[in-house]
Amino acid sequence: MPQLNPGPWFAIFLSSWIIYLTIITSKMNNFKYQNDPVLQDMKKENPQPWNWPWI
């Protein structure tokens, strides 16, 4: 049965995964973080109490 012989298709399968993992993933990672993360201010703001006019 030819599908059990890994000779013809295993090299194509392995080379396509190597191309995928090296070239395509590096191109995709360039689009992952377009903006640098910005640190937020560490000071805590005091919340204002709500105004309930109907109470």
Notes on the protein architecture:
The protein is mainly alpha-helical. Helices cover 42% and strands 0% of the residues. The protein has 1 helix and no strands. The chain has one helix at residues 7-29. The longest helix has 23 residues, at 7-29. It is elongated. 0% of the residues are buried. The model has no long low-confidence stretch (mean pLDDT 78).
What summary fits the major beta sheet? Answer: none
Q: Please tally the β strands and state the result.
A: 0
Structural Rg: 28 Å
**Helix proportion:** 40-55%
Strand residue percentage: under 5%
Task: Give me the number of helical elements.
Answer: 1
Low-confidence stretches: none
What is the distance, rounded to the nearest whole angstrom, between the alpha carbons of the first and last residues? 83 Å
Structural class: mainly alpha
User: What would the average pLDDT be, to the nearest integer?
Assistant: 78
Series of secondary-structure elements, N-terminal to C-terminal: H
From the spread of the alpha carbons, the general shape counts as elongated
Entry keywords:
55 residues; mainly alpha; 1 helix
In brief:
The protein has one helix and no strands.
Give a topology summary.
Elements: H1 7-29
